[in-house]
Amino acid sequence: MPSALLKDRALISVSGPDAEHFLQNILTTDLDTLGAGEAKPGALLTPQGKILFDFLISRAGENAFRLECRTDISDDFIRRLMLYKLRAKVEIAKSEQSLVAVAWGKESIASENDSTAFADKRFAKESVTRTYAGIADAGDIAAWQAFRIAHGIAESGADYALGDAFPHDVLLDETGGIGFKKGCYVGQEVVSRMQHRGTARRRVLIVQAGLALPASGTELTVEGRPVGTLGSSAGDIGLAIARIDRVKAALDAGQPILAGDVPVTMAIPTWAKFGFPQETVSAEEA
After folding, report:
1. 150, 239 Cβ separation under 8 angstroms
2. For residue 111, what pLDDT is reported?
3. pLDDT value, residue 109
4. CB 3.0 to 4.6 Å from 250: which of 7, 63, 107, 222, for a disulfide?
5. Whole-number Å distance between alpha carbons of 222 and 249
6. 271, 241 contact by CB (below 8 A)
7. Residue 216 exposure: Cα atoms within 13 Å on the Cβ side
8. So what's the pLDDT on residue 136?
9. Closest CA to 216 of 164, 260, 163, 153
């Protein structure tokens, strides 16, 4: 089965008698629904509802959790968690020898008896496993990125900047990264309002071209007007965060969408539940 060692990932442990209560009150993920052997996405938000840190969270034993995040944001993430700690009985620490690997395919399903392997729940229709110990083979990181992109799974750094996106923008509402039935957490009011009013207009879309896509950060335009921004890509396929109302208007009008000067098509990930809006904006409004 294909696999890859992810050298840009760090592991943060949060443990202690108050660990679950502490995390449940600040993170978007509903820990009541987090089962053993699962790694679920989530975020710590600003009070205004934008993603400050993104991660995958899993259980690491009784009263203990593991937060997997980008290495370059891990120290800042720990400092932010410490600000919220106050008198909570928790210990927060980063593993100095973190090894994170990912495997995908039919044989990658995490075994119930393997305490180091966790099913990546962002992938609704695919078997993807994160492993946190005993990894030696570097694997094929390019193949992993191509797989992730083809399935519409966005990650900060590669696809969007922290502090610049709402959870709905990057489909955390679709991948189990937001607990809409849990109590309050940081930024919860904004996220809930967006959910109940159906006002999410920026979404992750899959971009396809007839040739190699330009660099991440390239603007997507329709007749010179911006509709989104290109994220990571693998050859002629990539991800973008785009205004779905503007993309729909372009599709209805038969107007070409360009990534730089490269014509592209844009589609909703096949597993996603959201659709293009029925009412679209005019070219003047776009």
Report:
1. no
2. 47
3. 52
4. 222
5. 10
6. no
7. 15
8. 65
9. 260
Chunked into runs of 10 residues, the chain (286 residues) has average pLDDT values of: 92 97 98 96 98 97 96 97 95 87 75 72 93 81 97 97 97 97 94 92 97 96 97 97 97 96 97 86 45
Residues β-bridged to residue 266: 207
Rounded to an integer, what distance in angstroms lies between the CA atom of residue 283 and that of residue 286?
Answer: 5
Do 47 and 188 form a contact (C-beta atoms < 8 A)?
A: no
**Cβ atoms of residues 229 and 219 within 8 Å:** yes
Can you give the pLDDT at residue 283? 41
pTM greater than 0.70: yes
Give the model's pLDDT for residue 96.
74
AA identity, residue 216? S
Sign of the alpha-carbon torsion through 78, 80, 81, 83: positive
- Estimate to the nearest angstrom the gap between the alpha carbon of 33 and the chain centroid: 18
> 203: closest CA among 151, 254, 274?
274
Biggest alpha carbon–alpha carbon distance for the chain: 59
- Residue 103's pLDDT is what? 94
SS3 for the chain is: CCEEECCCEEEEEEECCCHHHHHHCCECCCHHHCCCCEEEEEEEECCCCCEEEEEEEEECCCCEEEEEEEHHHHHHHHHHHHHHHCCCCCEEEECCCCCCEEEECHHHCCCCCCCCEEEECCCCCCCEEEECCCCCCCECHHHHHHHHHHCCCCCECCCECCCCCCHHHHCCCCCCCCCCCCCCCCCHHHHHHHHHHCCCCEEEEEEEECCCCCCCCCEEEECCEEEEEEEEEECCEEEEEEEHHHHHHHHHHCCCEEECCEEEEEECCCCCCCCCCCCCCCCCCC
Amino acid identity, position 240? A
Residue 87's DSSP bridge partners are none
Q: Cβ(52)–Cβ(170) under 8 Å? A: no
What's the pLDDT score for residue 1? 81
